[in-house]
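Standup notes
- DV: blocked on the single-chain target, sequence here:
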Amino acid sequence: MEKYLTVKEVAEILRMGKTMAYELVNKPDFPSVKIGKKILIPESEFERFMKRYWYKQYTM
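- DV (later): unblocked, structure below
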């Protein structure tokens, strides 16, 4: 079963503020699901996104 992260959890993992975390999860290429006003991030998709991000940052 898929585990979902909250925006607060993403902010804690990435050690960033809540405002910056909301900016991140609202980007079109960020994997998030909006249910009503709640934003959830599938953990496996978050990990995939971060691997792609770090790969781009450190291979250019």
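- Follow-up: The radius of gyration is 12 Å.
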